[in-house]
């Protein structure tokens, strides 16, 4: 309670007129109120006399405010909208090409097994060694977040990735198929995957940036649909072209032309992203390149250390790493032992991508409302059961049931691979909701590189398991035991399913402050 009482004028009031003053006394009040009153009196005492103006101190250069941009006209806004749509075209084409990479890789597998005569174990080692550049994705993500090329930090890296892939697959299309050129072919595989990793990182970062203004999970679902559509067309056309031409170099040349179109589109598009101009003004006007990189690595380390990001990342990576992959051995079994046509294997991949498309649409409509822990536990169990479908093929139980090998491969061969690919989608939505602003490329690059590293580890486990049990190019008698152990290993991640949030759903879109 404040008591306010006017004071009586003193003797000097007759000589100089003055305003009646007030004395403020605190009758009843808290210490916080008395502190505010004392602060007010101190500021009043320090105020300059009336009529005298004081010049404020000059602001330091570091505290100078950023210039406020002038309001844009309607024509400028429409032009920016058109450029943003072109950015989406570049990003969508990047996902489509990423899925279409199965087209030249199907030819490359036949090229390595039939042209160079690689064994199943050697083929799987080449496949896993070729994925080593994908492990370096966090570096590419940090570079795209912190290092600008001109005033853009996404599209230039897509152009660089497309150029590297064009050089790699173009070289594979012209060099001869001999054992002496295998080191050159291996270098082309590494360079091609290096360029693909750069493009994938930047595309994921663009989707994450735009997903902040969209409904949860929508953009990630669209990206998965475009990716699956490219894989569907790549496998469908790859098997047909390889069966008709029997020439892998034709497929390498066709994919190089597609990469040239992607490169031309990315070079002719102006980058208009939410973070481009803001980050350029805030970060790069006053800080050096080394400071930006150091800060970006620090932000990535801080983001990963958050519990809601760290534990889901650990679960998804270990769930892939502990399961031995037998893809190279199964490919040789289907082509060398069962003598299946390339078109059958390509069509089986098409069926798998149709499954991914269906699961993605189903997730966007219904499954995203299921809590993450329960959803992932069900998906992992389905994956373990799908692995057993290969056991039916290897034991030829399908022939006993009257089902030809071609029909069984078409319907069930890619089932486990499709489920494993779909399992990544809920984690992509989770990380998008938890990713700090400005760290999109770095975090998703770390995520995808962790998945690639887990796939390499699982591939090495698969090669070791096949060699230990005694599976070779001409002897597949122990192959059923490998598949059974693979199915049992797929159930192991359920033991640490508590790493995942129990009640989180895709509708709980929480953006953590930076």
Describe this structure in words.
With 514 residues, the protein is mostly helical. It has one domain: Growth Hormone, Chain: A (Up-down Bundle). It contains 21 helices and 2 strands. Strands 1-2 form a two-stranded antiparallel ribbon. α15 runs antiparallel to α21. The longest helix has 30 residues.
Short description:
This protein has helices spanning 31-45, 74-100, 102-115, 120-130, 137-146, 155-172, 182-211, 218-245, 248-267, 276-283, 289-305, 307-321, 327-337, 342-365, 372-394, 397-400, 405-412, 415-422, 424-434, 440-469, 479-490, and strands spanning 2-6, 22-26. It is mainly alpha-helical and 514 residues long.
Which helices and strands appear, and what pairs or packs with what?
Elements: E1 2-6, E2 22-26, H1 31-45, H2 74-100, H3 102-115, H4 120-130, H5 137-146, H6 155-172, H7 182-211, H8 218-245, H9 248-267, H10 276-283, H11 289-305, H12 307-321, H13 327-337, H14 342-365, H15 372-394, H16 397-400, H17 405-412, H18 415-422, H19 424-434, H20 440-469, H21 479-490
Antiparallel strand pairs: 1-2
């Amino acid at each position: 309670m404040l008591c306010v009482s006017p004071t009586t004028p003193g003797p000097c009031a007759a000589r100089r007129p003055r305003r009646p003053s007030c004395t403020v006394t605190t009758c009843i009040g808290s210490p916080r109120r008395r502190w505010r009153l004392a602060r007010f009196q101190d500021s009043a005492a320090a105020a300059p006399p009336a009529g005298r103006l004081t010049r404020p101190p000059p602001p330091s250069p570091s505290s100078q405010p950023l210039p406020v941009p002038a309001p844009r006209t309607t024509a400028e806004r429409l032009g920016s909208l058109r450029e943003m749509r072109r950015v989406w075209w570049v990003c969508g084409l990047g996902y489509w090409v990423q899925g279409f990479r199965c087209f030249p890789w199907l030819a490359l597998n036949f090229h390595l097994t039939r042209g160079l005569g690689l064994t199943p174990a050697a083929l799987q080692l080449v496949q896993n060694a070729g994925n080593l550049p994908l492990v370096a994705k966090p570096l590419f993500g940090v570079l795209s977040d912190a290092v600008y090329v001109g005033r853009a930090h996404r599209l230039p890296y897509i152009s660089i990735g497309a150029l590297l892939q064009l050089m790699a697959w173009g070289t594979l299309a012209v060099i001869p198929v001999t054992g002496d050129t295998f080191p050159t072919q291996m270098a082309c595989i590494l360079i091609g995957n290096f360029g693909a990793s750069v493009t994938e990182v930047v595309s994921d970062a663009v989707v994450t940036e735009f997903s902040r203004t969209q409904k949860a999970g929508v953009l990630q679902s669209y990206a998965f649909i475009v990716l699956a559509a490219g894989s569907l067309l790549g496998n469908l056309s790859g098997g047909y072209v390889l069966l008709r031409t029997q020439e892998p170099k034709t497929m390498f040349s066709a994919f190089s032309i597609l990469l040239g179109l992607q490169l031309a589109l990315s070079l002719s598009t102006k980058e208009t992203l939410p973070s481009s101009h803001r980050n350029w003004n805030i970060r790069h006007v006053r800080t050096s390149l080394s400071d930006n990189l150091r800060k970006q690595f620090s932000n990535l380390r801080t983001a990963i250390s958050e519990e809601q990001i760290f534990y889901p990342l650990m679960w998804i990576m270990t769930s892939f790493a502990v399961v031995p992959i037998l893809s190279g051995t199964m490919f040789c079994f289907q082509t060398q032992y069962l003598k299946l046509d390339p078109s059958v294997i390509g069509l089986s991949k098409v069926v798998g991508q149709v499954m991914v498309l269906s699961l993605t649409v189903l997730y966007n409509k219904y499954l995203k409302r299921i809590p993450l822990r329960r959803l992932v536990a069900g998906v992992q169990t389905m994956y373990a059961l799908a692995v057993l479908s290969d056991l039916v093929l290897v034991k030829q139980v399908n022939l006993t049931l009257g089902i030809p090998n071609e029909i069984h491969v078409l319907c069930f061969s890619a089932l486990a691979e499709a489920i494993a690919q779909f399992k990544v989608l809920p984690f992509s939505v989770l990380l998008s909701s938890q990713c700090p602003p400005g760290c999109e490329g770095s975090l998703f690059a770390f995520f995808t590189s962790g998945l690639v590293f887990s796939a390499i580890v699982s591939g090495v486990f698969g090669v070791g398991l096949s060699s230990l049990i005694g599976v070779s190019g001409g002897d597949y008698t122990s192959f059923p035991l490998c598949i059974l152990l693979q199915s049992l290993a797929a159930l192991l991640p359920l033991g640490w399913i508590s790493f995942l949030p129990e009640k989180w759903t895709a509708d709980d879109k929480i953006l953590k402050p930076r």
